[in-house]
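Email to the structure team, subject: Methyltransferase family protein model.

Hi all, the expression group asked for a predicted structure before they design truncation constructs. Nothing fancy, just the C-alpha cells so they can compare against earlier work. One-line instruction: predict Methyltransferase family protein, return C-alpha cells.
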Amino acid sequence: MNLWFLARNGDQPFYVTTGDVKIAGLSAATVSPQMGSYNALSLAPGASIRLPGASHWYPLRNFQTNLGWVGASTADYDSLDISFVLPSTQEIAARSSFTFNRTPVPVFVPYKPDGMNVYDLVIDAPVTNTQSVTLGVMQNITHDKFYALATGRGVEIGPGPNPRVKQSDTTEVTYLERYGQETYLKYNHGYSPILQDAETLWKSYRVGSAHEIPDDLGELDFIFSAHMVEHLPNPLGHFRLWHSRLSEKGRVLGIVPAIKGCFDFMFNEPTTLSEWVSLLDSDLSRPQPWQYDKYVNRYKRTREDMVAEDIRPHFSFFTEENLADFLKWCCDNLGYSGFSIRTGINNVSIEFSLNK
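Reply from the structure team: attached below.
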C-alpha cells in the first residue's frame, strides 16, 4: 500500500492529514546500501494521517501486517502509533507502537480485528516527540538498465510524447500510437509537458497498436511497453501474437503497475491466471462488456456507455506473484523460453523481460 502515492496526489477523501505532514525521503546511506532509498513521509510532533476505510484496501483486507514500511527519527526514542479505528465511535480496535532512532526499523500495521467492519487506519506522531518521524513507504528503483535491454530493431507501444526507449547506435525503435500526428501533437499526460520537438520526434512514430504492429516492420528484436499491458482486454492473446512477430532471440520487455503501489489497491484484487486464460481467444481490440462491471459504480457510468466510448481502464491488476504465473504460462503454452521480474517494495512499477 503506497502512502507516498496518496500523499503526492493529495487523494482526499482517501488521505486526510492533521498537523505538519510532508513528503520526504530516506537515503540509501540511511537505510542500507542493499535496500536503497525510500520515498517517505515526515510527521512532525502531533501530526496524524488518517486513511478512511483502509481496512478494506489491498493488502490490508487480506489481513497482512507487513507492508514494507520502515521508520526512523533523528532523535532517540521518538515514536509512532498505528491504529485501526472504528469510524462510527472512534474506538481504537487495534494498535501497534514503534520507537525509533537514526537507524530505520521495520514498521508493521496491527493485526486487523475482523474482516467485516470497515476501519480507518490512523498513523499518529505523538505530541511528546521531539523531532519529526520519517516513515519510508516506497523503495525507489531506476529503470535505466532495463531500458538498455531494448537493443536491435523493435517497437515501443503507446509511449505518448515521452518514449522510454531512445534511438542509439545499438537501438532502432519505432513508436506506435493509435492516432495520427494531429492528435499526438495535442496529447498531454497531465504530469509532463508536451515535448517541444514533437514534430521531429513524430518521424519515428507510426500509427499502430498492441494488436496492429505494422507488417512492414518485419521481425522484431524487442517489443517494449510501459504501463500499457494492464489496459489490454486480452493480454495473453497479445503475448501469443507478439511471439509470432519476434526474431529468434527477441524479447517482450514491459513495465506494469503493481497493485500495492498505485491506486489499484483501493478497489481491486490481483487478477488470477484463470481469468487471463479464460480470455485467451476473445477479441484483442475490444474489451468484453463484463470487464467494465467493476467500474460502473466508481465512474457512475453504464457498461454500455463505457463500451461505446472505448474507455480503457486497468483490466489487469498485478503483483510479482501473479505476474510470474502469467509469464510462466506464456513459457509453458505460447513458446517463450524464460522470464525475469524486478521491482521495489511498494514501488508503483514491476519490470519484466520475456524471452522467445
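The chain has two domains: 3-139, 144-355. The domain at 3-139 is CATH 2.60.120.260 (Jelly Rolls). Ping us if the truncation boundaries need rechecking.
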